[in-house]
Amino acid sequence: MLLIHCPYCEEDRSELEFRWAGEAHIARPENISAITDEEFAEYFFLRNNEKGLTYERWRHIHGCGRFFNAARDTVSDRFLMTYKAGLARQPVPTAEEAAAIIEDKTVETWEAVEGDAR
Amino acid sequence: MSASPDKTGAFRIKGVGRHTPARTARFTFDGKSYTALEGDTVASALLAHGVHLLGRSFKYHRPRGILTAGPEEPNALLDVSRDSARRQPNVRATVQEVFDGAKIASQNRWPSLSFDVGAFNDVLSPFFAAGFYYKTFMWPREAWAKLYEPIIRRAAGLGEAPKEEDPDHYANRFAHCDVLIAGAGIAGLTAALSAASTGQTVFLVDEQPEVGGALHFDTSTMIDGQNGYDWAQDAAARLKAMPNVTVLNRTTVFGYYNHGFLGLAERVTDHVVRPAKDLPRERLWQVRAKKVVLATGAIERHMVFANNDRPGIMLASAARSFLNHHGVSVGHNVGVYTAHDSAYEAAFDLHRAGVTIAAIVDCRADPGEAVVAQARALGVDVLTGHSVTDTSGRLRISSMTVVRNGGGNARKIKVDALIVSAGWTPSVHLFSQSRGKLRFDEANQRFLPDIYAQNCISVGACNGTDDIADLVDEAIAAGGGSAVVSAENRFEWTGGMIGAAEGAGPDTVVKAFVDFQHDVTAKDIRLAVREGMHSIEHIKRFTTNGMASDQGKLSNMHGLAIAAEMLGRPIPQVGLTTFRAPYTPVTYGTLIAHSRAELFDPTRKTPMHALEAAAGAEFEDVGNWKRAWYFPKRGEDMHVAVNRECRTVRDIGGVFDASTLGKIEVVGPDAAQFLNLLYTNAWDTLKPGKCRYGIMTREDGFIYDDGVVGRLAEDRFHVTTTTGGAPRVLHHMEDYLQTEFPHLKVWLTSTTEQWAVIAVQGPKAREIIQPFVEGVDLSNEAFPHMSVAECTVTGVPARLFRVSFTGELGFEVNVPADFGAAVWKAIWERAEGLGACLYGTESMHVLRAEKGYLIVGQDTDGTVTPDDAGYGWAVSKKKTDFVGIRGLKRPDLVREGRKQLVGLLTRDPGDVLEEGAQIVADPNQPKPMTMLGHVTSSYWSENCDRSIAIALVAGGRAKAGETLYVPMSDRTIAVEVTDMVFFDKEGGRIHG
Amino acid sequence: MRKYSVFAIAREAMRAHKGWDAQWISPEPRSSYDVIIIGAGGHGLGAAYYLAKEHGITNIAVIEKGWLGGGNTGRNTTIIRSNYLYEESMDIYEHSLKLWEGLSQDLNYNVMYSPRGVMMLSHNTHDMQSFKRHINANRLYGIDNEWLTPEQARAFCPPLDIAKTARYPINGAALQRRGGTARHDAVAWGYARAASDRGVHIIQNCEVTGIRRGPNGEVQGVETSKGFIGARKIGVSAAGHSSVVMEMAGVRVPLHSNPLQALVSEPLKPIFPCVVMSNTVHAYISQSDKGELVIGAGTDQYNSYSQTGGLQIITHTLDAICELFPIFRRVKMMRQWGGITDNTPDRSPIQGVTPVPGLFVNCGWGTGGFKATPGSANLFAHLIAKGEPHRLAAGLNLDRFRTGRLIDEAAAAAVAH
């Protein structure tokens, strides 16, 4: 069972509290009624399904109820970070940062990583 | 050694062992009664009485004894019962503690353990080579399932499944800790002392009844000046006294999952004579640990040689455990066959206890000097560079055949037990489960932890740390604190081998068992390689090596080495099969714990449930809800009751519990705009105080949900959803609100459980509720169909809807849930006096079908567009955006000939179609027939005095008036396609 | 190929089984083939076999990054049935079931197809409506599927609890008697042996790292860990890894890879005669010939390639199993594992041409891939040989996600595979 850091509650909580909500950073087309069938299929059905680093959405459905984004390795299921909805796709931590994350077992939020960078 | 008169067994040795001689327990094995000492395992208790034959093997039904003294036991699996319902098959005799009154039986034999007809398979074994069943039983075609397979199935399997429902109960606990330590041997205890010194919360978990691990058998290790085992008990006592430490005995860490999550199974009462009723039989612990220390030790391997499976042959460490811990000798005249120094110490202990050591046969030319010197000093015959190449004895070993390696005369040495050791396999199971990567330690022929995937650390024997001082240092470091432990042992151990021993090599045809439970021999593994199975996974699956209930704890390394030799490849290149949870089998009941019966899944009941039950309601399951289905009066069956209810609603009135409808409060200045985006309809034109029926699609354009939405104020909507749909609709709305339309000022709140909803329908609906309602004029003019108002009902603040799902004059009274029962009571008393009825979901379904109202999820199925359902009018043509606007325009959603909802009338009005029946144009066509669609709803309508049905039919609306056919298995029913309104086509009744 | 039979076994028994040949050969790859199939599971090996047997194409390599049959072929709960709802589904699953019925004889390899009956439990009105829709559609198609009362259901499967007091009582069941199980490894090995015998090269431990395209975008071959291997036709049949492989040719497919969990009990004497599935309580169960209760559990909610999953999925399934069969509470779980399922948005497979000339895809079988093995392989062979789909697989094309002509078994029935 995964342990997930909610960037709103700022807590590590069990997967039981969360619902996975698909690939992240897929915006609904602004002019959706004007797009082609191909573009619609792309938007609605096609997903990257990466083996490795994936950006995805979760909802803390049995907690604060917020949707947020996460970067996770789909091979190890390790979270590299979680960050709030609305933020652009965040760069993943460097190898050293990732190693530090593994070392102290805390899942960094974007805000925390950003703070360190400053 | 002289025969002891001890009633706890002739092989009990006075003054040896850790049990209290006065505390005995009686049990039966295959009907015969035995006395044991408290603390005995079933294995030690039987061995004390000289009983070695405990079971029969899986395939050849060969007599089998006890191989180990721990949870890795592959052979000695027994059926243990307290009473007929508390019967447990496949219990490891080496784990189960004896309790007074236990009834124990052997398995997989008929008619008896000593004479088993199935043993004929052993004679036929040349035919039953690995994978033989893939090559035969193919003719005739039907015979596999009818003839061969049933025979194979009866022969396979081990224990008999329980036949009665389990009366025991189980418990579940969640826990968090800083450090969880798996294994309480020297390494685990030391790590725990170190971790505990830092003040961290520590879980120390061990599968045995007492801590100590290898110290159960190892009597030569001294720690802090004490005998090792005594030190371990002291250390555990110290740890238990600390507030930050939890010590769990009889508890197996069976699974190491993601992100520091571990599954533990604690055996609570299986060893207790009369368990207290409130105690669970077992307890599941689900622990999230910040750090895990694996101190899981190592497992001794057997030697692979001809006929190495006879009862009386066991691991040297097992014999040592039986002796030093249980005070039981495994024989009077014991042989030793080893490739590792550790077996010598077993021989020394036995020798010291007065047991004759027939000989130590060591396949190595140069064993450890110290042990050999000690053996010689004790006068024990040591044959280095020799091997045991065969054994004899039908139900128990009687002799071993010893040959000098490389040839020479064989000589038979009489023994009544043979203890063996091929060395030690580090227990890396949990490490591997945590997805750590192993490396092969070439020098010692073993796999060891290499790359960690989680915050864990292996210490001690499971990490390949052989030197005791190193082990202690490693454990202290892993604990992260400090501890002072000084340990020393008498001998340094060397040696070990994997693979087949002398006399069982590739050029031989002997039965040298690798996997005892599944009867896999060295030659089976070689056959697999010969047949092209070059991956270790293929070899495992082809031979079933390592797939028995011990999951290859003893056999995997031997199997791998034999395969590697055949393939001519180094072991790491052949690879290792995957370690999977659980470490040892876990009872389903334990994993389930409290999730049974009413706790299996929550039951949702409306505030009026008890009143409905008192009124005689039958209930049906709708999702988690229990909904009143119909209200039979005395002597009524469902059909009669529903007919009465339907007629009464239309003639007079009816009261219905609609509380399960999903309800979402949509509030905020942009609420109307938000609903515009989420529903196909337009909402900005809806005036406060009015309601509208709304259809929701997803982006794909298919109907997702529907319901009436009332506008209470400019910025406040009361949205209703289908009964099952509420959670997913709210989730769907939140998703759009938070991520696509975050600029909208809208708040969403689930109010399903806040409101009790009482629907009052029928010509007298107004008359029924009128006296209770204050604050709203109920007249048609002031409060027409599709109105909503806030008011009071029986003095309770309420939201009153003038809506109808029956086509009659109707109201839905929403009151706070806590008042639901009281308001229901008041309304129903008056309604009953006026001749109205209570009605349930079945009548609700019939009444709405009479009016052609659809039920999402019954008449639609996720492939139906609003237009398909005949609700094209509910899709706004003016809006420039809503969820589904683009999906609806896709080629297949706008093509001609889509399935559309229509009405069906059977030619014979008495015929009620089957819901789910398929519709065709030509009933005489050959199969596979072209199906036009199916019946989604079908009822007997008492009000129409005939059957009615709704169906999805390809190009349905254009087929109005046509005759189609519903072919059933016994006859074909002709139907006419109609519109969907069967009753009150003009629709006047709804306006009262 | 040396024919397998009881006589062959008897002969070999006399000489310690030293005369058996390798079931398949493990050759070094040639520089090019007529057809390359990526993925040596049941579908890929089967497609190679049928290409050789029915279409006369034998210059084929089946390339596998691990060991043959090591993906979902060897990790599933081996259930076989064909009682699906939509014509497109019935077409392929019934075609498959018919092939299952003669597969052991066709391959001369006992795949242990055992039609012991697959029974789906109905717990409520919605289930009943849905199951009867299936039963009627199946009957008019020519597929057996029948409705049972709760009493009939228990007679068919005695351990079943049909008490009305259960949390979710049973109100009936749908039974397909021809449904059942087969031995999963034997399917891969049987196809491998038969294909190898017809000259097909099975290249194991060879990972495809790229798909080389020509000037007109057509496929030219694959880059692998053993070097470049040429081919003008490539069939991708890589189950949970299909997204990864298709991406190499620049083709995106609408797939989610999710771990599907399963578990087996310790071996028991025969106690469970058939296959039982319940969608309402999320469980399916059968007993293997070795005596283990084989239980299919749920899918983890997130995309993953990890082949492991959470304990909560297993425990939830066991909750359900023991609600249906209370006598199993003292039985023990021996082993749990996960497989990576590739799921499409409509939970129906994709088999068809792709925008890349010469590249064919067979994926998205979700939890239904094992039962489809012979049928899917057979029709995939046709697709590769002819360049266009067989009539029975025509609806499984990729284009349906553009047009919206989905085959939505999940939406229509909410019945797990």
From TrEMBL, chain A:
InterPro entries, A to Z: SoxD, SoxD_sf
UniProt GO BP: tetrahydrofolate metabolic process
Gene3D superfamilies found in the cross-reference section: Folate-binding superfamily
One Gene Ontology term of the molecular function aspect: sarcosine oxidase activity
Transmembrane segments: none
One Pfam family this sequence matches: SoxD
NCBIfam families with a match to the protein in the record: soxD
Name of this protein: Sarcosine oxidase subunit delta family protein
From TrEMBL, chain B:
UniProt keyword list: Oxidoreductase
Stored InterPro entries: 2Fe-2S-bd_N, BFD-like_2Fe2S-bd_dom_sf, FAD/NAD-bd_sf, FAD/NAD-binding_dom, GcvT/YgfZ/DmdA, GcvT/YgfZ_C, GcvT_C, GCVT_N
GO annotation terms (biological process): tetrahydrofolate metabolic process
A GO molecular-function descriptor: sarcosine oxidase activity
Domain of life from the UniProt record: Bacteria
Coiled coil: none
Keyword Endoplasmic reticulum attached: no
Domain FAD/NAD(P)-binding: 178-453
Record keyword Oxidoreductase present: yes
Domain annotation SoxA A3: ranges: 511-593
Domain GCVT N-terminal: 608-879
Occurrences of domain Aminomethyltransferase C-terminal (ranges): 899-984
Membership in a protein family: Belongs to the GcvT family.
Stated name of the protein: Sarcosine oxidase subunit alpha
From TrEMBL, chain C:
GO BP, one annotated term: tetrahydrofolate metabolic process
A Pfam family recorded for this sequence: DAO
Record domain Rhodanese: where: 35-79
InterPro entries in UniProt: FAD-dep_OxRdtase, FAD/NAD-bd_sf, Rhodanese-like_dom, SoxB
Listed cofactors: FMN; FAD
EC number: 1.5.3.24
GO cellular component: cytoplasm
Keywords, alphabetical: Cytoplasm, FAD, Flavoprotein, FMN, Nucleotide-binding, Oxidoreductase
GO molecular-function term, one example from the UniProt record: nucleotide binding
Subcellular locations according to the entry: Cytoplasm
Major localization class: cytoplasm
Assigned protein family: Belongs to the SoxB family.
Protein name: Sarcosine oxidase subunit beta
Protein source organism: Neorhizobium lilium
Lineage, uppermost ranks: Bacteria, Pseudomonadati, Pseudomonadota, Alphaproteobacteria, Hyphomicrobiales
